[in-house]
Amino acid sequence: MRSLDFPTNKTSPPRLYPAFSGDLKVYDYQGDSWLILFSHPKDYTPVCTTELGQAAIEHAEFTKRNVKLMALSCDSVEDHKGWILDIAAANGGEVKYPIISDPKRDIAALLGMLDEDEKEAPGLPATVRKVFVVGPDRKIKLQLVYPTAVGRNFAEIFRVIDALQLAAKFPIATPVNWVPGKDVMIQPTVSDADAEAKFPGFKRTAVPSGKGYIRMTPTPQ
Ligand code: BEZ
Prior knowledge:
Layout: E1 15-17, E2 22-23, H1 26-30, E3 34-40, H2 46-57, H3 59-64, E4 67-73, H4 77-91, E5 99-101, H5 106-110, E6 129-134, E7 140-146, H6 154-169, E8 172-173, E9 184-186, H7 192-198, E10 203-204, E11 215-217
Parallel strand pairs: 3-4, 4-5
Antiparallel strand pairs: 1-2, 1-5, 3-6, 6-7, 8-9, 9-11, 10-11
Helix pairs in contact: 2-4
Benzoic acid is lined by residues 41-42, 45-48, 126, 148.
C-alpha cells in the first residue's frame, strides 16, 4: 500500500497534544515503531470518549507490540486539552499519545476521513472513525473504517496488529477468525521444499481438487 503522506508543506502543520503541544513531524514521532493513526468524529462526544480512553488504558499492550498511537480530531487544541480530562475521568486512562487538531480538516480530507468537497463546511461533515496501521517502513498496512454510530473494537485492533507483525516476519497468512496461538497458513508462493525447511511437519488439508494449497502450521515464534 502507499505510504502515509502528510501535508508537510502546508503553512499550518498539524497541532498535537498532549505529549507535543506544538508542531511535530509524524515520522520523527513514529521512529522505528509501528504507528496507529485513528480519527474521531468530534471532541466531547460519548463514543469517542470511550475509544480514546480505551486506547489510553491499553498503553502497555501497544508498547509491548512496539506500536505508537496518534489520534486525530478536527477540534481545537484547547478542546483537546479539556477533553482529555473528561476521558481520564470517564475511563480511568491518561492520554499519553498526541491528538492532532485539524480544524480546517486538511489532514482528514487528505487521508480520506471525510468528503473533500465538504471539508470547509462549518461543523460538518464529521470525521469517520478510521484506523490506519502503518509499518516501520511508513507504508499503510491496513485500514479500518467505522461509521460514527459504531465504536471500534480494540481486541480486533490488537488481533490485526499481531497478524500483521507475524506476516511481516514469516511467509504466512492468518485464516478466518484467527487469534494468536491458532495455526496459520503457509503462503502459496512458498514451495513445499521451503515450507518443510521453514515449518517442519506442516499439515496439508485434503481437498477434492487435490491441489494441496492449504498448508497449516503452528504459529511460528
Ligand atoms: C460519538 O462519538 O459518540 C459520536 C460522534 C458523532 C456522532 C455520533 C456519535
